[in-house]
Amino acid sequence: MLIVMAGLPASGKSALAVRIAAELRCAILSVDPIEAALWRAGIGRDQPTGLAAYVVAEDLAREQLRIGADVIVDAVNDAELARQQWRSLGAEQKIGVAFIEVVCTDEDEHRRRLETRRRPLAGFAEPTWDEVRARSVGFDGWTDARLTIDSMLSLDENLRLTLEHLRQVRAG
Predict the structure, then answer these.
(1) What is the bridge-based pairing of β-strands 146-150 and 27-30?
(2) What is the rounded CA–CA span in Å between residue 39 and residue 31?
(3) CA dist 86 to 39, 41, 122, 150, Å?
(4) pTM of the prediction?
(5) Which domains does the chain have, with CATH numbers?
(6) How far apart are CA 55 and CA 57, in angstroms?
């Protein structure tokens, strides 16, 4: 199964992805560390490294799916083209795709999380609150079947809800 996390930066996607991966014993392919690695390798920031990170994640996911492993893709996925990328990969590999959208319904808490988060990604600047809010329009009109998780609930409760949803998706 291909599990695609989606949601604004600092919404809680990665924390949930880590818990899902631990439960399912599967890989997480996270776009931000891939992009940071491209910069460390000397690829200039003036290059389309964000797009390249999605392409790298797709190719790595394809290899894991090909050998029968579940994969979690951890990325904002706010663009329809990104979501289509994962639908196409699922169709190509003839496997289910489960979209998990993570939202933080408390805007003040979401902003606090963004402004206080420190990730171990050398040279990777966190977006501003205005940049995060601007990305929210990418989710307007999104019609894929998906589970929407509110990160204001406990991580344990969200894990339970997500695993239940994934069992249903896997069952068909």
Answers:
(1) unpaired
(2) 13
(3) 24, 26, 27, 22
(4) 0.94
(5) 2-171 (3.40.50.300)
(6) 5
Token pair belonging to 129? 């609150």
SS3 category, 77: coil
Query: Both tokens of residue 114?
Result: 């963004």
The CA distance from 140 to 138, in Å, is: 6
| 52: pLDDT strictly greater than 80 | yes
* Residue 128: strand, helix, or coil: coil
Q: Which two tokens stand for residue 38?
A: 């491209």
Cβ count near 133 (within 10 Å): 14
Q: Which two tokens stand for residue 79?
A: 């663009």
Tokens of 29: 């392919």
Label the pairing between strands 2-6 and 27-30: unpaired
pLDDT digits (tens, 9 = 90+) for 72-94: 999 999 999 999 999 999 999 99
pLDDT at 32: 94
Residue 162, amino acid? T
